[in-house]
What does this fold into?
Amino acid sequence: MIHTLHYISQHSTANGHIENISQACEAGCRWIQLRIKQETQEQVLPVAEAVKKICDSYGAALIINDYPAIAVAVGAAGVHVGKNDMTVKAARAVTGPDMIVGGTANTTEDILQHVADGASYVGVGPYRFTSTKQNLSPILGLEGYQRILQELRQQRISIPVIAIGGIQEEDIPALLETGVHGVAVSGLISGAADKSATVQRIYELVNRQTIWNH
Ligand SMILES: Cc1ncc(COP(=O)(O)OP(=O)(O)O)c(N)n1
Ligand SMILES: Cc1ncsc1CCOP(=O)(O)O
Ligand SMILES: [Mg+2]
It folds into this structure.
């Protein structure tokens, strides 16, 4: 089952990612994506091994950003790949059929391709501008999600859509109303003064909507 709250790590150092993920787990996050940019696969591997142990101790699922081979090597739950990484099909060829493979999408066409390639979920964004990621695709806004989710329903396409990009707590109810399955956030939790309280409020928002939708 794809969770409704995805936490994406961010820090400038390897140890910072480990600390960052420990804190997110301690605050209650149970779906963690290790996202280290501007490091080699060799440098990311030991960090992935360390955070896998942390995630296991909290019963949290670990997704590795960009590197399917690392996801396989550390026994992570899955991998997330974007347009500049590789296709979902290529990632799936590395992970095999059972691992979670997520793909980034900015359009309905992107989503259809990921579905055809065997994606488990799609990360769709950005919702709004964010400084967490560089070279953003066109901003979708609420209208973008309304249009894309409607197109998916019209085409009878069913795949968990995870909204991402600059998402704040107050955005979540309206985003879920569009039909998205959940949200992926980084800055909202990384920068929170009280991470536990923030995570608890986000879970209440995403889970309340899940109950309404079913
Ligand atoms: C859940 C989720 N959605 C989208 C992304 C973005 O992935 P990508 O486009 O490959 O960009 P980077 O994160 O690698 O900079 C994501 N990581 N997670
Ligand atoms: C990885 C990624 N992909 C699109 S926006 C984004 C960053 C999400 O982080 P934040 O929640 O801090 O905007
Ligand atoms: Mg990527």
Remarks:
- Residues 8, 125-126, 130, 132-133, 164-167, 185-188 surround TZP (ligand 2) (CB under 6 Å).
- Residues 177 and 209 are 8 Å apart (CA to CA).
- The chain has nine helices and eight strands.
- The radius of gyration is 16 Å.
